[in-house]
């Protein structure tokens, strides 16, 4: 019945310290050893996720920047969809992010995480990969080769940013939250669900045979796409309200994805691992 696994990272496969624990590692390795294709689908940067993948010790497909990039298990980039340069140049202007300067503005290029100020507190999210940012004057960036723009700030400030984006671009962009304090912007053609469909077509596996796990608003269409969606108990309440019929399985800090996968694929549930 189950032929492929897709999982979000933060709040889902990663624990409360944004790391993978040994039980999750052993589970994912066991499943891959049985020939089950694994897909990681996240808003994180490809270079960051490649480091997490290496800690897991598996070779999954990587859907990153919420679907703006897809890499095959051999690291070949098999799909990319960038924001238009003129759009990027608008996204970094203060009339979108706020003249007050409280919102941290980020751009994800092919190999770099670009940021408008030093923000060392963000590095705790990248302990496994060691991925870090480059501080630049974003106003001088030409807008080329950018997969995603990311605004980090207080939810009240981000609500204003979202309203600014809606006013300026309408439905021309894909705007979503990955965390309450992270608002992400990609081209309108991009989403985790569309990228996952691309991978499944490449594998010649029906969406009906796919299991997927998520916890936040950027997981909506992925969970709507697959035949067997599951949601974390710690999921965003807005996601729970949006998808009330999707089963909830437990919390990310309890390695719930790993435990649930062991049940679905009939592996021994090594509780002491």
From TrEMBL:
InterPro entries per UniProt: Cof (IPR000150), HAD-like_sf (IPR036412), HAD-SF_hydro_IIB (IPR006379), HAD_sf (IPR023214)
Cofactor: Mg(2+)
Keyword GTP-binding: no
UniProt KW keywords: Hydrolase, Magnesium, Metal-binding
SUPFAM superfamilies: HAD-like
Gene3D superfamilies: 3.30.1240.10, HAD superfamily/HAD-like
Domain of life: Bacteria
PROSITE patterns (alphabetical): COF_1, COF_2
Pfam family, one: Hydrolase_3
The protein's name: Cof subfamily of IIB subfamily of haloacid dehalogenase superfamily/HAD-superfamily hydrolase, subfamily IIB
Source organism of the structure: Paraburkholderia diazotrophica
